[in-house]
Structures
1.
Amino acid sequence: MDRIESCNSLWLLDSTVMQFCRLPRGTDPANAVSAPWQRYYAFEDESDTGAFRVALDARRTRWLASWRHVEPCARCTDDRTREVVMPPPGTVGAGSSRPRGAGDS
Ligand SMILES: [Zn+2]
């Protein structure tokens, strides 16, 4: 059983039966027995970016993607500073060019 922490969820992946389940962060993983498990058809992990995704259909046309939560976490920091005055363009340090848009629900 693989266990992956994203910023919003705890993902549990059972590769032997190809099923995964997502729990809100902070939930006791013991609750996973009563959580809805969903079939997945592929798992991809980008160790350099922390991104990972699962294919929701056999033809791999629908993917559910997220990012691993790490400390310190740039994504969580982004969320916290979103409503603060932004620095002028060009002053943001290198390394902030992460792919975005897939979302993490
Ligand atoms: Zn995070």
2.
Amino acid sequence: MSFGHVETIGRRVIVLGGGNTAMDCCRSARRLGGDDVKVAVRSGFDEMKASPWEKEDAQHEGIPILNFLVPIEFLHQDGKLFGMSFDTVRAEYDASGRRNLVSTGEPPVRIECDDVLVAVGQENSFPWIEREIGIDFDRWGMPKVDALTLQSTNERVFFGGDAAFGPKNIIWAVAHAHQAAISIDKFCHGGDLRDRPAPDVTVISQKMGIHEWSYDNDIRNDLRFKVPHLDLTIALKDIKEEVELGYDEQLAFKEAQRCLNCDVQTVFAPKLCIECDACVDICPVDCITFAEDGPEAELRTRLSAPAVNLTQDLYISDGLKTGRVMAKDEDMCLHCGLCAERCPTGAWDMQQYLIDLAQVSPIKTRTTRQGVMA
Ligand code: SF4
Ligand code: SF4
């Protein structure tokens, strides 16, 4: 629409879809004359694909988002659209955690409109793959793909990106391509596809002086600073007006200060530890505990702050002089570095890591007198 190929739209508009494109469509519709614009989405609000700030911006412009509505039909009379009807659904999850949208059985919801904008994503469709070539498909028509190797049930066929596990993003698809390339290379050389090359990891201490880090370790509870927006009355009048004004220097600095330094990790050297508990005292989130060892499930309950997120591994050391272990709940660590700053022996260090994931090397070329050879 901002290319100018659409200049007007009906007063009442329904936008179908829950992604960022749907959010763009509804906000553009408001600017092109729609004063009663609604978004109708199959999923619940939290599961919508749109980024939270995109949903927030749409709602800020007075656009309601109606969830759990599955389109049934376009309503029209004498060739003219006058609305849509929707089935109200609820989400039910099967044993594998996959979501199914099930009709609630309520009467259809009718919404009147002059225009409908369809902003739904594209689905995979593989009817063109002959079913007898050995690729198994699940009940949603998606190929059964090994998540590690990206190999299908036909060992010579690999899938990645949207075609393997449904829509996500381009970064994901590119990562799959690298992993599939490694698998294909191994397959062609008769190797074990499950034996994956380890990533190259570089770890560098962030210590500069005795109480000095190469990054700022001030702890802040600030929530995301919102990007200032143009006044709504001006923004809605002209589709060409830039809505997000951007951060000024001060706000940008505050936002940057919220960085959790995820690339900087605590590294513990048990041999240097004198078990003085100074790090335990200073940790703002109580994620360090010195305790007797025990089975993990039981040890989790004895930590200073019980580690309830079972999907997050504990960081456990051995080799302490008293025979105890140091247990750290990585789920809670803020990477503030206060433990390392306080430790009198340097047993804690803050180290920045860089992971270089293994990729299949590009074809090496070498120059000969005759020309370039692969
Ligand atoms: S980095 Fe901060 S939050 Fe993490 S263990 Fe050390 S003191 Fe605690
Ligand atoms: S502050 Fe250092 S020496 Fe003291 S318990 Fe913690 S890691 Fe060990």
